[in-house]
Give the backbone structure.
Amino acid sequence: MFEFLWNLSSFIVALGILITVHEYGHYWVAKRNGVKVERFSVGFGKPIWRKTDSAGTEFVIALIPLGGYVKMLDERVDDVSEEDKPNAFNNKSVYQRIAIIAAGPFANFLFAIFAFYLMFLIGVPSVKPIIGEITPTSIAAQSGMQPQSEIVSVAGKSIKDWQDVNLALVSKIGSDSIEVKTRVADSNYVSTYTLDTKDWSFDPNSESSIRSLGIQPFAPKVDPIVAVVEKNSPADKGGLEQGDKLLTINNEHFDEDWYTFSDRIKQYPNQNVIIGVERQGELVSLDVVPASVNRGGKSVGYLGIAPTSNPWPEEYKIELSYGPIDALFEGMYKTWDLVVLSFDMIAKLITGDVSVKNLSGPISIAQGAGSSAGHGVVYFLSFLALISINLGIINLLPLPVLDGGHLVYYLIELFTGKPVPEKVQEMGFKFGAIALLGLMSIAIFNDLSRL
């Protein structure tokens, strides 16, 4: 219950910030262009807070925090007095209307730069992208790539950490090959490998782009010694305790490796297993029934324990931290890369290179908000920036119910010299609503299937 409430509250906070930023972009440019703004609302439905300023704009926080709007004076929907007609949105030039509509998504991109700027000013703890192992017969193995080396470039992009590697690889989905450059530790010698990705495919819900190529990131050894037992979890109910050394499953020994133990437990959802542990020098057998959880559309066993991890070598640790000027440029570069990647993913959804199963909805966003907020302010800022970019891009899609659809109409008006007929606009709005509802339905279905 606590996790649910934490995710929900983090989601509401994140969405409230991003909606306010988006709508404020519309509001600020509308006011600068002399448009009378009647209402600025964050959320829909019944107002839970409201205030009217001296210009007559009503600011509202409404009950349902799943969107927002700026209501501008417009002769097409309101009776407008003669003296107010110059302040109506529809009476502004097409250039002014384009600026007002485009300001919302643009504000989201500016906010992403600001969030990344703060993140890089504070500093982001990370690790070097050192390859631990190469899976035999994998795409990486066939290229000749070697373990115990650091990835320095992917597809021509300079690499700092594993997140950079993942983003660069994802951007090349659908390509026939990917060039990867690596460097042996404490050496300036760079090796270049070409990955044959003509037949590369993977499910991002169950596997990362990195591991799907056969690249296993280095990680400190994880000992099969219980460090944390989740309260009221199957492990807690079965009697597992902090400090227990895991030895056997159903009286069979496994390699003294946490990942082997984890893989074995996943095979027993809702089934009784006997786990042998060493506790304070004594051997203890425990009857435990792992819960069943959904991972990538498959039911797997879950105990609710965390192992003991060895510390990262100091020479592998890095902190992405910059001064005020460099942090601004890094924020701009990061935002630009993610904007380009997002548009690229939309194109690949259309061509079929990326499956619609990868679409995420509000449940996944809420989980991401809760997880990032739980890890600290730096990670929450990164999450806000990413979602802000996605919100800006979604609103630029050429669907008439979104900002992008309005922009299409105004661009047509700009080139033809006359507005798109209202009947055509109404038909477009209906089509856009159906298309948007369809996309949302797919995203929510995907969310539910991952639970």
Observations:
- The first helix runs from residue 2 to 32.
- The first strand starts at residue 37 and ends at 52.
